[in-house]
Structures are given as C-alpha cells and as structure tokens.
Write a structure and sequence with these properties.
two-stranded antiparallel sheet, Asparaginase/glutaminase-like, 10 strands, 4 helices, Rossmann fold, alpha/beta, Asparaginase domain-containing protein, EC 3.5.1.1, six-stranded mixed sheet
Length: 161
C-alpha cells in the first residue's frame, strides 16, 4: 500500500458527549489521532468530508463521498462512517473501479473507554491492504460484502443476511 486515503463522514466513531446539552454531537474525526498514537508504518491522508450521524446522510452526501473517492489517486480507501446507513453507502460505491474501499465505524464513540473503534479501524486497515479491489465493510471482527450484511439494531452488531 503506497498511501491510504481516509475519508471521514461522521457517525458514532467521532461523537462527543456534551453534558450541558445532554446529547451527543459529531466531533472532529478521530482516526488520524488514533493512527498516529498507534505509530502506524504507512502514510495516510485524512479527508474530513461530512460530519453527520449516518441516519442524516442524504443521497447527495453519498454522491459527494463517491466523487471524493473517484478524485483521489490512492487505490486504497478507508471510510469512517456511522453504522446505521453504512451498508447503504457501501452499495452506492460498489461499482467504483480499481480501488479497494473499506467502510468501518464504531458502536461506541472512539473517545469512550471500551470503544470498538480502534479494533474496527485495525481490522479495516488490514482489510484494505489485502483484499482485491471492491467495497467491503469491516465491523465486529469480520469483513463483510455489503450486499450480504445488515446491521441488527437490537443485537447492536452486523450479521449476514
């Protein structure tokens, strides 16, 4: 892998809890900080594209994500994304040629102790380097075909269709 292009779209992975508002808001992208702290041995660029909960992503947002990826020379792309509509975005990207694209996120914010964010990012980094061109989802220690997976909201995990 020459260089990893990381596109951030918001989602739980980047959420921050605001006590004064008693709610969560999408904060700054966390993946760059995480990769720097882990001392990764590859070059990466972070493109903070949108900062939304994935339930609020629109078709226009997905078109913007697609355009941004097509405009990048990097063949390896990792997208941080909210889990609720990750599958939908992955399907929009399914026909992007000559790139390995892996979407990942977290069920708990990266800033929280016990978050699955670092684990999911690690799985996604491994996947994006080793898989053939195509689009994949890296969640819960598994690599998924976006056409054969769904998020089980009640169990709070991804599972085969």
């Amino acid at each position: 892998m020459d260089q990893l292009c990381i596109v951030t779209t918001g989602g739980t992975i980047d959420k921050v809890y605001f006590d004064d508002k008693s709610d969560f808001q999408v904060g700054e992208p966390q993946i760059g900080r995480i990769l720097e702290e882990l001392g990764v041995a590859f070059r990466f660029t972070v493109i903070p594209l949108v900062r939304k909960d994935s339930l609020h992503l629109t078709d226009d947002d997905r078109a913007l994500i697609r355009q941004a990826i097509l405009a990048q020379p990097a063949r390896h792309v990792l997208i941080t994304h909210g889990t609720d509509s990750m599958v939908q975005t992955a399907r929009v990207l399914a026909d992007v040629p000559d790139k390995t694209i892996v979407l990942t996120g977290a069920l708990n914010p990266a800033r929280f102790r016990g978050s699955d964010a670092e684990f999911n990012i690690g799985c996604a980094v491994g996947a994006v380097q080793t898989l053939p061109p195509g689009v994949y989802i890296a969640m819960n220690g598994r690599i998924w075909d976006p056409h054969k997976v769904r998020k089980n909201v009640e169990a709070n995990r991804f599972e085969a269709l």
